[in-house]
Specification:
single chain, alpha/beta, TIM Barrel, 3 domains, about 15% strand, globular
Length: about 600
């Protein structure tokens, strides 16, 4: 593996060139600056005919030359050279590379609203990884209680989270690496954090006064004023020309207080009216263009003529079936002249580890559709459902793989290989970047597929995860499965044995101890979730193991908290930890019966 992501055109020749040691430094930005300043011995050749990220890299008997048209292209060239120099200890093969991205915008989105709020240094570490993979966009997904909103200071007065100064610092850090930090603030659905508070409750859509709403009422003037205040608190600190205003999963649309209005106008029209109202305000006040999740209207292509000019629809779908359905949606966007992204997922949410077979299919499908039907970008989403208990270590390989596909999708998927070479290259790159070359990623892939041994395949989660978050007396999860119909202990015993066996192999590897602690904790959580599934299958017969499960929870909780606090602000850890303490109390009650 000479380069990752793989370049579009590369020719290797016999011969070798040694790059001066001072140029082959650890920090990519420092390396780039040395090259740009002309103090590295690298020849720079400006080519105005190149696109902004297009570059050439030539190593031969005459030395080393980089071709580019602007600083962004030079940075991409320097990134490739930096990677080759690090891998070869400064020794470079004779090579000729001509390269440019296949998808214009290549982004990563991290949920910082539903549990984890990473510290600034943690986010910078993520940004450096993205830059090494030639990403050019980052979004930090916000609902509430993750940012110090000046308009509503009491909401975050009692805990630490990102401040305006933090955002300005991260914005500058991203710009230095040619990454666009795009604000991402939900503005319709997913407003539970706000609407559960008595002073904001009247702005929600609900059937009963005692219901906790999750969707704003778009017909109320106070809802619009609320969003204006949120934007005024947030948007001035981002230099990006874009803002993601969310609007996904607005489940109250067409119901409750607005049911009659939606019946007359059409749900899709009501959605578009709210989108346009927010768009006009953001354009006129901040000069920014909006992005929006398109799930509420992608089945209404007749309404696409109402999409604001320059707005970008975000076509998301994370499961196998959703990935397949995207084709029709992408064709509709293209035919309607709507700008759009495709949005796969790391699939780490609601399963502890990710589900890598689904993830690799999802990312590959999205990238190929983006190229075939003209999407402007690909945005890899990383969600934090149910308290965001999963470690970021499980996101590393999906991020690397999407970096490859965003830059170069390669030959179109055939009927056999599943592009295993891309998957293995991504793993090798993560192993080099984080684990000192130790082949840990293959073991992570294996552990992540534990859910294939569970008796049910479940939409965007695993049984072991979901049942751990639900009370012991709840066996059904939505319409998807009921533990009472899930066979016997055999399946979950297999999960436990499998995860323990993979963990034995990981323990033998010379990997940083903190990484091992994170993986051990993950394995323990999967095991605990599987044991809880067995308790739900036959609660009375499980009394004998209740005490040992309580002991397991008592071991997990302090380790969970300590690892959480290494990378994240303290507030938020209680969201998932409360699930563990609730199961502990229920197990105690089971013992007492």
């Amino acid at each position: 593996m000479i380069l990752f992501p793989r370049p579009h055109e590369m020719t290797l020749r016999e011969g070798e060139y040694f790059l001066p040691v001072k140029a082959a430094c650890d920090k990519l930005v420092t390396f780039y600056k040395l090259i740009r300043e002309g103090s590295s011995g690298v020849r720079l050749a400006e080519n105005p005919q190149y696109g902004k990220e297009e570059y050439s890299l030539t190593v031969d008997e005459n030395g080393l030359e980089l071709g580019f048209s602007c600083d962004e292209g030079l940075f991409r060239a320097a990134t490739s050279l930096w990677q080759m120099a690090k891998r070869g200890g400064g020794r470079l093969p004779f090579v000729s590379i001509h390269d440019k991205p296949e998808i214009g915008r290549r982004g990563y989105m991290l949920d910082i609203s539903r549990g984890k709020k990473p510290k600034v240094d943690t986010i910078k570490r993520m940004i450096d990884f993205l830059a090494s993979l030639k990403y050019n966009e980052l979004q930090l997904y916000m609902e509430g209680e993750c940012f110090k909103y000046a308009a509503y200071p009491k909401e975050t007065a009692d805990f630490d989270c990102l401040t305006p100064e933090d955002v300005k610092e991260l914005d500058a850090y991203c710009r230095e690496r040619f990454i666009d930090l795009v604000p991402n603030q939900n503005s319709f659905g997913h407003m539970y954090t706000w609407l559960k508070k008595p002073e904001f409750h009247p702005m929600g859509l609900y059937e009963d006064e005692n219901d906790i709403a999750s969707t704003l009422n778009p017909l109320l003037p106070e809802s619009f004023e609320f969003m204006k205040n949120i934007y005024a608190s947030l948007l001035p600190y981002f230099s990006s020309e874009y803002v993601n205003i969310g609007l996904d999963e607005a489940y109250g649309l067409g119901k409750y207080q607005i049911e009659e209005y939606c019946r007359k106008k059409g749900k899709d029209v009501v959605f578009m009216e709210w989108l346009n109202k927010l768009n006009d305000h953001i354009r006129d006040t901040y000069g920014k263009k909006v992005m929006f999740w398109s799930d509420m209207v992608y089945n209404y292509p007749q309404s696409y003529h109402m999409v604001p000019k320059d707005a970008i629809a975000l076509e998301w779908g994370y499961e196998l079936i959703q990935s397949q359905r995207m084709t029709a949606h992408c064709i509709d966007y293209k035919n309607a002249g709507v700008r759009y992204y495709v949005c796969p997922a790391t699939n780490t949410h609601a399963c502890f580890t990710g589900r890598m077979d689904v993830t690799t299919f999802n990312i590959r499908t999205c990238a190929e559709l983006a190229v075939e039907y003209g999407a402007e970008g690909i945005l890899l989403t990383d969600w934090g459902d149910s308290g965001h208990p999963q470690s970021w270590i499980w996101s590393m390989n999906p991020i690397a793989l999407c970096g490859q596909y965003g830059w170069n999708t390669g030959a179109k998927q055939d009927g056999e290989t599943f592009k295993a070479d891309f998957i293995r290259d991504a793993e090798r790159y993560v192993d080099e970047y984080f684990f000192g070359g130790t082949p840990l990623s293959r073991q992570l892939y294996r552990m992540a597929n534990y859910y294939l041994l569970e008796p049910e395949r479940v939409h965007v989660c695993t049984m072991s995860f979901k049942e751990l978050t639900l009370p012991l007396n709840v066996t059904r999860y939505a319409h998807l499965f009921d533990m009472k119909d899930s066979g016997d202990d055999f399946y979950f015993d297999n999960v436990i044995y499998y995860v323990r066996r993979v963990m034995e192999d990981i323990e033998k590897l010379p990997v940083d101890e903190t990484y091992k602690r994170e993986i051990r904790l993950t394995a323990k959580l999967v095991e605990l979730g599987s044991e809880i599934c067995k308790v739900k299958l036959h609660p009375q017969a499980s009394k004998g193991k209740a005490l040992s499960l309580i002991g397991m929870i008592d071991e997990i909780l302090p380790e969970y908290t300590e690892l959480w606090n290494l990378y994240n602000y303290e507030r938020g850890s209680e969201r998932f930890a409360s699930c563990l303490t609730d199961r502990r109390e229920e197990l105690k009650a089971l013992l007492a019966e």
